[in-house]
Design goal:
mainly beta, binds the ligand Nc1nc2c(c(=O)[nH]1)N[C@H]1C(S)=C(S)[C@@H](COP(=O)(O)O)O[C@H]1N2, binds molybdenum atom
Length: about 350
């Protein structure tokens, strides 16, 4: 039985990030929609305070008409709502050995919310895309220095991705205004993609005639097996199944204590590439697997699906695991697939269970 070990001591720098950026307590997987305060938070720099009365969204670059939209004007446009599971690309990073030093997520950098806003496409159509449009750049109000580079947080989408139906300029989360930490007053939400794409505190949308080559594209968010490689960009979420850890925890180790009576294991599973088509559970550390029962998808193809599994544990120590497969055939490795930035580590969850 191979147990999860944290290979090297956590540094103060990592702890500083971990204390600011919180995850979803795994028991909150019981909620189909994550209560706002339990949704994971990831902020590279500082959370800005924005006066919505003076804030405007600027739309410019390779467009026929530049736009400057107030929050009231955006709220006046036809709105849509979509339930979206969002996961940080660094989820699973702290389980890699050697551990890439950044926000040390274990498994909990995920959440599902109902976002309301204006389809990005509708705003781009109002502005009218120029013929040379290549990328659409999203600029946040937050600033910082990262890897020695002074910057505002910025990410871009290729025009064909930006013009898809689902990307949203969101001003509401679970029925209320965006909370400060989730991007008030407006953020991008790109269903299916890892969270770095969904720029918060949005202030500018700029249509470029070339591929954006900023820090968050060229230095960060690339799969590289060595520092000097060009690598390939991180984009959509790999499949992952997570379970609500059963029973009760031991305070320090978080290992679980479960009675020797039938227990229903439950959790959620998602993929940004295609719908999840199967979840399997192993109660022997990944030696043997059995199918879980799949449930609903929160009414949205971009949201996680619930799953359950009936288990009658025997006394002893067990390593309980779960894994998902999507309709495109993507699955989850049992072992690690290492990369420099520690992105998209979707190795299966392993929960140590003691049955007295
Ligand atoms: N402006 C801005 N947008 C941002 C970030 C940021 O630091 N600044 N972090 C990104 C990352 S890495 C993730 S995973 C998601 C997290 O969104 P959440 O905090 O609402 O869960 O926001 C993305 N958008
Ligand atoms: Mo992230």
């Amino acid at each position: 039985m191979s147990e999860v070990v944290v290979p090297e001591p956590i540094t103060v720098a990592e702890l500083q990030l971990a204390a600011r950026n919180h995850g979803l307590p795994l028991e909150a997987l019981r909620h189909e929609l994550t209560p706002v305060g339990l949704h994971y938070v990831l902020v590279h720099y500082d959370i800005p305070v924005v006066d919505a009365g003076v804030w405007r969204l600027a739309v410019g670059g390779e467009v026929e008409r530049e736009l400057s939209l107030s929050l009231e004007e955006l709220r006046g446009l036809p709105a849509v709502e979509v339930v979206v599971t969002m996961e940080c690309a660094g989820n699973g990073r702290a389980r890699l050995a050697p551990r890439p030093v950044s926000q040390p997520w274990l498994l909990e950098a995920v959440g599902t919310a109902r976002w309301r806003g204006v389809p990005l496409r509708a705003v781009l159509e109002r502005a009218g895309l120029g013929e040379r449009a290549h990328d659409v750049l999203f600029t946040g109000l937050d600033r910082g220095v990262e890897g020695g580079v002074e910057q505002r947080y910025e990410r871009a989408l290729p025009v064909e991705e930006a013009l898809r139906e689902e990307p949203l300029l969101a001003y509401e989360m679970n029925g209320g205004p965006l909370p400060p930490q989730h991007g008030f007053p407006l953020r991008l939400v790109v269903p299916g993609w890892y969270g770095m794409t969904s720029v918060k505190w949005l202030s500018q949308v700029t249509v470029l005639d070339h591929a954006f080559a900023g820090y968050q594209h060229e230095r960060a968010y690339r799969f590289r097996s060595a520092e000097d490689e060009v690598g390939t960009p991180v984009s959509r979420m790999q499949p992952r199944a997570l379970m609500v850890p059963p029973g009760v925890p031991e305070f320090m180790t978080r290992e679980r204590i479960v009675d020797a009576t039938p227990v229903r294991l439950e959790g959620r599973a998602w993929s940004g590439w295609a719908p999840v088509v199967s979840v399997e559970v192993s109660v022997d550390g990944g030696e043997t697997w059995a199918p879980a029962q799949l449930g609903g998808d929160a009414g949205s193809p971009w949201a996680w699906r619930s799953w359950t599994f009936e288990w009658t544990p025997t006394p002893g120590r067990h390593l309980v695991c779960c894994r998902a497969v999507d309709a495109a055939g993507n699955g989850q490795p049992v072992g690690q697939v290492w990369n420099v930035g520690g992105y998209a580590n979707n190795a299966v969850q392993q929960v140590v269970v003691d049955v007295p």
